[in-house]
Amino acid sequence: MPRIAYVNGRYVAHADAVVHIEDRGYQFADGVYEVCEVARGFIVDMPRHLGRLNRSLRELSIGWPVTPDVLPIILREVVRRNHVTDGLVYLQVTRGVASRDFVFPAGTKPSLVVTARKADPTAAGRRAESGIKVITVPENRWDRVDIKSVGLLPNVLAKQKAKEAGAQEAWFVDADGTVKEGGSSNAWIITRDGVLVTRPAEHGILRGITRTTLFDVAAKLGLKIEERGFSVAEAKAAREVFISSATTIAMPVVAIDGVLVANGHPGSITLSLRQAFFGVAEKSPA
Ligand SMILES: Cc1ncc(COP(=O)(O)O)c(C=O)c1O
Q1: How confident is the model at residue 191 (pLDDT cuts 50, 70, 90)?
Q2: Which one of 99, 102, 233, 275 is separated from 256 by 20 to 30 angstroms, measured CA to CA?
Q3: Cβ of residue 206 lying under 6 Å from some atom of ligand 1
Q4: Residue 234: pLDDT over 90
Q5: Distance (Å, rounded) from C-alpha 261 to C-alpha 255?
Q6: What was the pLDDT predicted at 161?
Q7: Does the pLDDT value for residue 25 go beyond 80?
Q8: How confident is the model at residue 1, as a pLDDT?
Q9: Is 283 a known active-site residue?
Q10: Rounded mean pLDDT, 112-134
Q11: pTM greater than the 0.85 cutoff
Q12: Do 109 and 245 lie in a common domain?
């Protein structure tokens, strides 16, 4: 079954899907993106993802490539045409195609690309049963990581370093030792008293949609959340540690820089958050 991509108004074979060499996404990383999980035939938290897309576009003065009511239709259509029941749908909007010049071009239409991909939900479940390892790296990203920009080179390098160290995620850490977030996830710890701790999202991290929905999940489970920074040392000594993102949900972390968290096994609170997530998240039929 050939994969299908949406590119600027057309559904095309994935293998033939192209954008122009002068697309500003290609030349300047002048664009933004979103990733929604697809689970059991539903697009998870789509309105929240499109709300964040709207904010990212506004912050960069990029226009909507299609009207906001049309985008969900395109997402659904790409999921449907690719027969994705479990996996993800990816969308990218750039400022468009223009002769290479730093300043915003006048009258350029933003480019829109949408792709979808299958994933094996049992593989994610197995990963959650064993947990993942993270390493820490110094924060070296720009100041506007609250915008979901396609400029991800520091994240690429950090995650490659994690892979070479036998880990699955890298945490960016401030000069004062506080944890910011992962290369593609938010970071959480659970204290000895069972309180969830995650850094405030007003500045310095991406406000993860999964993070936001986990606030709702925690409320449902009667768990307390503290929004505050935490250090690498506090994380290493925590009762549980986990990361969150659309594709990992709440994923237990069992080691940080080679130091085991608790007994080196996924924590029960993290697993209960993971279990309850789908019942709380908003599900739009694909
Ligand atoms: C840097 C970063 N932080 C956090 C997240 C988690 O965001 P979400 O839960 O919306 O997937 C991501 C997701 O890709 C990310 O790239």
Answers
A1: very high
A2: 275
A3: yes
A4: yes
A5: 5
A6: 98
A7: yes
A8: 77
A9: no
A10: 96
A11: yes
A12: no
Looking at 147-208, list the stretches that DSSP marks H as alpha helix, in order from N- to C-terminal side: 153-164
Cβ atoms of residues 280 and 214 within 8 Å = no
CA separation for the pair 130, 144 (Å, rounded): 34
**Residue 243 and residue 193 share a domain:** yes
Residue ID of nearest Cα to ligand 1 atom 16: 184
Q: DSSP label at 186?
A: E
Residue-level pLDDT at 109: 97
Phi/psi of residue 138, each to 5°?
-65, 140
Whole-number Å distance between alpha carbons of 228 and 139: 18
pLDDT of residue 27: 98
The residue type of 229 is: G
Buried b (16+ CB within 10 A) or exposed e, 239-258: bbbbbbbbebbbbbbbbbee
From atom 3 of ligand 1, which residue's Cα is the shortest distance away? 185
Question: Rounded distance, CA 78 to CA 4, Å?
Answer: 7
Domain hosting residue 205, numbered range: 124-281
For ligand 1, atom 1, the nearest C-alpha belongs to: 184
Of 82, 88, 90, the C-alpha closest to 119 is 88
Q: If you average pLDDT over every residue of the chain, what do you get?
A: 97
Residue type for position 23:
D
Q: Residue 15's domain is classified under what CATH number?
A: 3.30.470.10
**Catalytic one among 109, 118, 133, 148?**
148
Query: For the purposes of burial, counting CB atoms within 10 Å of the CB of 64, is it exposed (0-12), middle (13-18) or buried (19 or more)?
Result: middle
Q: Which amino acid is at 12?
A: V
Tens-place pLDDT, residues 61-119: 999 999 999 999 999 999 999 999 999 999 999 999 999 999 999 999 999 999 999 99
Residue given tokens 């070479």 in the structure block: 164
| 169 CB within 6 A, ligand 1 | no
Across the range 164-180, mean pLDDT stands at 98
- For residues 161 and 98, membership in a common domain is answered with no
Distance 39 CA to ligand 1 centre (A): 17
